[in-house]
Amino acid sequence: MAKARDAVRMSDDEVAAFLDGAQSLQVATIGKDGAPHLTTVWFLRQGKQILFETYGKSQKVVNLKRDPRIAVLAEDGTTYDRLRGVSINGTARVVEDNPERTALMRDLLDHHFPGQGAAELDARWRQKWRKKRIVVVVTPDKTMSWDHTKLGGKGPVSEANQRGRRTPSISCWREKPIVCQRDIGLCLPAWSRFKDIAGGHVRC
Questions:
Q1: Is residue 204's pLDDT more than 90?
Q2: Can you give the pTM of this predicted structure?
Q3: What DSSP string runs through the chain?
């Protein structure tokens, strides 16, 4: 397993390039009851750190003030051989005070809205967000990455195709009768919600 992870791991430069090309970041914080709280934000990479801005009274900020541990994820790809991602476990610092908050917010706005002048960005900041929004700076403790394009087309889908096997699709038939008896609490598989049931078989 270690060799497989090593084969798809990104270098530091590749991690930086991937994060620079991504727009959305999934952010997980820890709620008061210990349950994870998950949201998505726009972000900016600055060196090894991750920056994002948000409402100061948002649940994720409330969580971070109580417990600064945080996990973030950027990913893309819709097939196994194209999957890429960077996952970071780290420590968050909530920046509420100026001049640091204003300087970091200007960096974020310049990244999100390229081409606008400093005066326009400052006006946007003062008019809309100055009193309500803060900046979160994430310092990584552990970084994990994967880039399945390094596999050279190898993977579950391509290997199945090479053996002449069809991968599951919405046009195949599963030769398996379905029994549905709600009175004994027997439920259909989750995927059956998206299928057509006809003649005792499931269209998958």
A1: no
A2: 0.72
A3: -HHHHHHHPPPHHHHHHHHHH--EEEEEEE-TTS-EEEEEEE-EEETTEEEEEEETTSHHHHHHHH--EEEEEEEE-SSGGG-EEEEEEEEEEEE-STTHHHHHHHHHHHHHSTT--HHHHHHHIIIIITTTEEEEEEEEEEEEEEEGGGGTT-SHHHHHHHTTPPPP-TT-EE-------GGGT----GGGGGSEEETTEEE-
